[in-house]
Structure formats: structure tokens, C-alpha cells
Design a protein that fits this description.
Blueprint lengths: L3 H21 L13 H11 L14 H9 L2 H19 L9 E5 L9 H6 L9 H10 L6 H12 L3 E9 L3 H10 L7 E5 L8 H14 L3 E7 L2 H4 L7 E4 L9
The chain binds 2-acetamido-2-deoxy-beta-D-glucopyranose and magnesium ion (MG).
């Protein structure tokens, strides 16, 4: 038998559904879309949780869905949510009386910096990766900040974590990457680690694990790690907690 509470929730659910129906009757251009393509929503879920594994481009029918995801503020909202959970964890680590060996690792692209202006001009990840044009974009040094990551970065630093920036960008992009990070508001990192000659051809997951392992061997305790790719967060020498940021545009294995 249905309890009064469950009847009430059914009524509330009905009210929510019908108000969504009502909203749908109004012109869309002034509204942030409240519902979206359920199949693309499920596709995005599957790639974000890595159930899809490696994938090379957004399914054609989901390109405008991904565009909307960025344009309606959902991307910012998701990254704020992940950053606040990350901060909660950071606050739970006792670094106050520490030895300066508690570390936090940040990735660069789609983590500290956003390449959205580039991807906006290049089909939001619906086109195959073009190394030449992407490198040209990197060389401009104009990648904007991902605001939630800057806030997290500053707070984690203030808590006393040593910050390591570990990127798949190459050593020859060091100067422009450093300047771009500074222009975006970042400062005070312990080390910026880029791919050197010896890392060429390595999968990101191997390269990043090896670099984290070097930190562990130096005595650092990697407490947290923030990255938009599973290859930032898996492998070995893992952080105690890894935080996956959203990225439905591309996959790096
Ligand atoms: C990749 O980008 C370069 C530089 O913008 C361009 O000349 C080239 O045609 C692109 N390649 C493909 C396959 O689109
Ligand atoms: Mg990245």
C-alpha cells in the first residue's frame, strides 16, 4: 500500500514534470535548456566514467549536445562541483604540521587551462586530433583559465600542499606553457613536468605514472590528483584521491 509520503513524492514529481513541460512551451533561445538528448547524455556518462574506454571523436548526433554542454554553463557547473569535492578532501588531509612532502598533482589542458577557444573553432572534438593546428594554438599562449581549478589550486597551495604540474605537453613548449599559466593566474608551483625526449612515444598513462613514481621515490605523498583524462589518474604511483574533471571533447590513452 502506498504511504502518504510516497503519494506526496509522486505528486511532487508530477509537478516537476509538468513545470518542465510548461517551460518547454516557451521560446528556447532565452533559456538554458533543462532537458537534453537522453542518448547523448548517456554517451557522455559512459565516456566520463571510462566505460567507453578509448574513443576518437564525438558521435555526430551528439556534437550540438556537447556544444550546449559548454555554452549553457553545465561544464562550469560540473567543474565547480568536482573542485569543491576536491577541496573537501584537501581539507581532510593533515598538512599543518607536515614536513612539506604532501603533494597535489594537476594536469594542464582542460584542467588548469581550457582550450575551448581552439575546440570551438574546430568542431568541439568532432574532428580528428590535428597536432599541427593544436600546437599552433598552444604557441599563442592564450588558453584561458578554468576558474574552478584556479580556486582549487590557490586553496590547496594555501593549505600547504606542494604543487606539481604534470602535463603531456612537450619540453619545447615549456616557456609558452609557463607564461600561459602565469597569465591565467597560477603561481608558486614546485615543479612543472613536461614530456622530455625520453618520454616520446610513451602513452600518457605510462609517462604520467613514471613521473608520479619519481615524486614518490623522492618521498612525496601524493594526496590528490586532478585531471580531465583517466590517463591522468590511473596507472601506478597513484594519488590517494584522484579527481576526474569533465571532458566530453577528446580522449587521451
Ligand atoms: C591540420 O592543421 C594544419 C594547420 O592549421 C592544416 O594546414 C592541416 O590541413 C590540418 N590537417 C588536417 C588533416 O586537417
Ligand atoms: Mg588534460
Amino acid at each position: 500500500m502506498a504511504s502518504p509520503t510516497s503519494i506526496l513524492s509522486l505528486l511532487l514529481l508530477a509537478a516537476v514534470v509538468s513545470s518542465a513541460e510548461v517551460i518547454r512551451m516557451y521560446p528556447r533561445e532565452h533559456l538554458v535548456r533543462l532537458d537534453s538528448d537522453p542518448e547523448c547524455e548517456s554517451w557522455k556518462f559512459s565516456v566520463e566514467v571510462n566505460a567507453a574506454g578509448s574513443w576518437s571523436s564525438i558521435p555526430r548526433p551528439c556534437v550540438s549536445f556537447v556544444q550546449d554542454y559548454f555554452n549553457t554553463g553545465r561544464y562550469l557547473s560540473d567543474s565547480i562541483s568536482v573542485a569543491s569535492y576536491s577541496e573537501n578532501f584537501a581539507l581532510s588531509v593533515n598538512v599543518a604540521d607536515g614536513d612539506g612532502m604532501d603533494a597535489w598533482v594537476f594536469d594542464v589542458d582542460e584542467t588548469l587551462l581550457s582550450n575551448l577557444p581552439y575546440y570551438k573553432d574546430n568542431g568541439f572534438g568532432s574532428e580528428p586530433y590535428n597536432e599541427t593546428s593544436f600546437n599552433e594554438w598552444v604557441y599563442k599562449g592564450l588558453a584561458p583559465v578554468l576558474p574552478a581549478s584556479l580556486t582549487l589550486y590557490k586553496r590547496v597551495k594555501k593549505l600547504g600542499f606542494k604543487i606539481f604540474i604534470l602535463t603531456g605537453r612537450a619540453e619545447f613548449q615549456r616557456a609558452v606553457t609557463e607564461q600561459n599559466l602565469i597569465d591565467a593566474g597560477y603561481s608558486g608551483w614546485e615543479k612543472l613536468i613536461l614530456r622530455g625526449r625520453e618520454d616520446e612515444g610513451k602513452k600518457a598513462i605510462v609517462y604520467k605514472s613514471e613521473k608520479r613514481d619519481e615524486l614518490v621515490k623522492q618521498g612525496y605523498r601524493i594526496q590528490g590528483s586532478s585531471g580531465d583524462q583517466w590517463s591522468d589518474l590511473m596507472g601506478f604511483a597513484l594519488a590517494k584521491r584522484s579527481f576526474k574533471l569533465p571532458n566530453p571533447m577528446y580522449y587521451v590513452s
